[in-house]
Each structure stands twice: as structure tokens, then as C-alpha cells.
Write a structure and sequence with these properties.
Layout lengths: L3 H10 L15 E5 L6 E6 L6 H5 L6 E7 H14 L4 E7 L8 H13 L7 E6 L1 H13 L5 E6 L2 H7 L4 E6 L2 E8 L4 E5 L8 H18 L1 H15 L3 H21 L14 H10 L7 H18 L5 H13 L12 H8 L12 E6 L2 E5 L4 H12 L2
Parallel strand pairs: 2-9, 3-4, 3-5, 5-6, 6-9
Antiparallel strand pairs: 1-2, 7-8, 10-11
Helix pairs in contact: 6-7, 6-9, 7-8, 7-9, 7-11, 8-9, 10-11, 10-13, 11-12, 11-14
């Protein structure tokens, strides 16, 4: 195991991976999310699905309920079940996709728990991407008023973002993530080996959340991404391990400072108000979350440019990086300014009727504001609706 502060800074400042110790990328790395009695580790490494000791120390009781989707079940459920062979393992397989993150599917998870029956000492394991992590986390928060939870993310987006921080939720047809709870896991186990089987489109979608961390508060990381995006997009092992760790380190620091999003944590929603509007308008079935967030970050950057905060060169750099990641740069044709505003008005960040947005003063300097001229927002919506 390695201490992250040194190892990450060395890699960030070096263009020559050979300068690093060879075992850095084969070792398991640990980031601790500091939340007092709710603190927990994030384990990052290749092959962690088969590391029985990593799981055992965080499991409560003998019962385990693994929730996964049909795609991931075919790939990894048997392997994880074998790893957990000392326990009584049950599994619930749900559909694959954002459209399954709803109250009906949530109830089928409760059905599975009650039919066993699972007692209050059951440990729930979310094996999959963001949808599985969100709905399993919410189920764990609700079942018998809260049971143990492990997050085992298998997508890039989930490994760098959604599995960390304790946000759990389901969608409503009128708004994304509007029903949920803050509920921290006992651990996050991110096996980077699972990213090898991730479909290309989903991998690219995950890069949006990686870029987000550079934009909102880590200028050095943004510059590293500019230099290394081509290698990262090819899933270069060294680059991928670094990007996952750096993203988790950034998020863990923000979550530790503001667990329940009363202030700084809201910055993690950069691009999300615009992006969630796209997801809701398309019924969660044609755009991936990361694709919508990529466009949303561009829209936030465009608004920041129109407000005179960032330069045209900054906007160009952001646009180029998002395009190099293989992400879309324009919303669906059906998204009119009126449709954007309609869905943006049903958002967790709306306060007393005002749409609060995460904007940029510069690359690496984000802020939350509802103090912008509505006409400027309309210009951004018009520009992207006509793009």
C-alpha cells in the first residue's frame, strides 16, 4: 500500500512513468473518507473482486444481498460469490440502465430481502455502475431503517464519482435523483480490472466525471488530462489508475468537508443541472449520465464565458478536452430553451424558486450562484438549442 500524497504528486509532475516505482500500479491503494464515526476506506486496485479479506473486514453478520444488473451479473456475480463463500450470499438482479432506477424496481429489492428473509444484520453489496450503486444504497438506507452497505463499482463513472460520498437515490418521471438519502457505505472496493470489459460508450461517459474534478478545483489535474487524455481514452493502465485515484482523492476531501451538501459539496454538481434536464427530458433511456454531464459542463462554461469570468481560450480548452474524451458537445435536438428551463426548475439545487448553477471563475475555480442575469442564461440555452 502507498501513501497517496507523494505517489500522486510524483505522477502528476512526471511525463515519464518509468520514474515511478514499478509496484505502484500493481499495489492496492487506499483513500480514507474522513467522516468521524462514518469514515470509510476506498480500495483501488486490479483484481480486488477476488480479495476476500478486503470484503470480510467490513461485512456485518453472515447474510449478504448482492444487487447487480443483468450485464454485470453475467460478468462478475459468480466471481464475487466465490470470493464471499464464507457467507450466506443472495443476489437480486435488476435491469441495466437509468430507466430502472425507480420506485418499482426499488420495491423488487425489498421483496428479495424480505423473501429470504434478511435480518437487520444483512450486508448489502452494490455490484455495478451508478444506477446499481444509487438504488442499492437507498434500499440499504431504508431496509429495517438502515443496514450495512458496500459499494463495488464496476464502471469508470461509478469508481470516480457516484460510489463515493453516500448520495443514494431513485428517479421520478419529473426529476432525477429527487427521492433519496445520504447514506455512507462501510467501504468502497474499486477493482480497476472491471474497466477492461466496460463498453466504449460507457467508458467515455465516465471520463466526463474525471474532467469535472479538474475543472472544479484541481488545475494541475486538468493540465495533466490535457497532456494524457489520448492515453486515458485508450485505457492505458498507468493513466487509468492515476485518474481514478486523483478523482477519488478530490471527491473524498470535498465530502469530508461537507457531507450533506450545505456548501462546498454542491460544486460537485458542475454541469449537472443542465445534464439532468437532458436525462429527464429523454426519459433516462437514450443518453448516458456522463454524456449529459459533458454537455452540461460545456453549457456552464459557456454561461461563465458570457458572464466575463473565463476567457475564450479557457472555453476552447474545455471544449477540446471534452471532445477528445469522445463526449457529445451539443444536447439532443429536442431540447429547447423552454424544455431546459422546465426541467431545470425541478432540481435539488433550486432554492426559493431560483435556479442555482455551478459556474467557473477560471479552470479549477468553481462557485455556486443564482446571481446571474436571466437573459444571459437564456442566451446560453438558445445557443445550445440551436447548435
Amino acid at each position: 500500500m502507498h501513501r497517496l500524497t507523494l505517489s500522486l504528486s510524483v505522477f502528476l509532475k512526471s511525463d515519464n512513468n518509468a520514474l515511478l516505482a514499478q509496484d505502484y500500479f500493481s499495489a492496492m491503494h487506499i483513500i480514507n473518507v474522513q467522516l468521524g464515526t462514518r469514515s470509510y476506506p476506498i480500495y483501488i486496485g486490479d483484481g480486488l473482486l477476488s480479495s476476500a479479506d478486503t470484503y470480510a473486514q467490513h461485512i456485518v453478520g453472515k447474510q449478504i444481498m448482492v444487487v447487480t444488473n443483468a450485464t454485470i451479473a453475467d460478468l462478475y456475480l459468480e466471481s464475487l460469490t466465490q470470493t464471499l463463500s464464507d457467507f450466506e450470499v443472495h443476489a437480486k438482479v435488476i435491469g441495466d440502465g437509468e430507466k430502472y432506477k425507480n420506485i418499482e424496481v426499488l420495491n423488487t429489492i425489498f421483496d428479495a430481502l424480505l423473501k429470504v428473509p434478511c435480518d437487520r444484520h444483512v450486508t448489502m453489496i452494490a455490484l455495478g455502475g451508478g444506477v446499481v450503486g444509487d438504488i442499492t444504497g437507498f434500499a440499504a438506507a431504508c431496509y429495517q431503517r438502515g443496514v450495512a452497505l458496500l459499494q463495488v463499482p464496476t464502471t469508470l463513472l461509478a469508481q470516480v464519482d457516484s460510489s463515493v460520498g453516500g448520495k443514494t437515490a431513485i428517479n421520478h418521471k419529473l426529476g432525477k435523483n429527487m427521492i433519496g438519502a445520504f447514506y455512507q457505505p462501510r467501504a468502497v472496493v474499486a477493482d480497476t480490472g472491471t474497466l477492461r470489459t466496460l463498453p466504449e460508450r460507457e467508458f467515455k461517459a465516465g471520463l466526463a466525471e474525471v474532467i469535472k474534478y479538474g475543472l472544479l478545483g484541481d488545475t494541475d489535474f486538468f493540465q495533466w488530462l490535457e497532456s494524457n487524455m489520448d492515453k486515458l481514452a485508450r485505457r492505458d493502465h498507468h493513466s487509468l489508475i492515476f485518474a481514478v485515484e486523483r478523482s477519488c482523492l478530490n471527491k473524498s476531501r470535498i465530502v469530508a468537508a461537507d457531507e450533506r451538501e450545505q456548501g462546498r459539496r454542491a460544486l460537485l454538481n458542475l454541469g449537472h443541472t443542465f445534464g439532468h434536464a437532458i436525462e429527464t427530458a429523454t426519459n433516462y433511456d437514450s443518453w448516458l449520465h456522463g454524456e449529459a454531464i459533458g454537455v452540461g459542463m460545456l453549457m456552464a462554461a459557456d454561461l461563465s464565458l458570457r458572464l466575463g469570468h473565463i476567457s475564450a481560450d479557457d472555453f476552447r480548452r474545455i471544449m477540446e478536452l471534452i471532445k477528445r474524451a469522445g463526449l457529445p458537445s451539443t444536447p439532443p435536438e429536442k431540447m429547447s430553451p423552454e424544455k431546459f428551463l422546465s426541467y431545470m426548475s425541478v432540481d435539488k439545487k433550486v432554492k426559493q424558486g431560483s435556479i442555482r448553477l455551478v459556474l467557473l471563475r477560471a479552470i479549477g475555480d468553481a462557485y455556486l450562484s443564482d446571481d446571474y442575469p436571466p437573459l444571459i442564461l437564456q442566451e446560453t440555452l438558445q445557443h445550445f438549442s440551436a447548435a
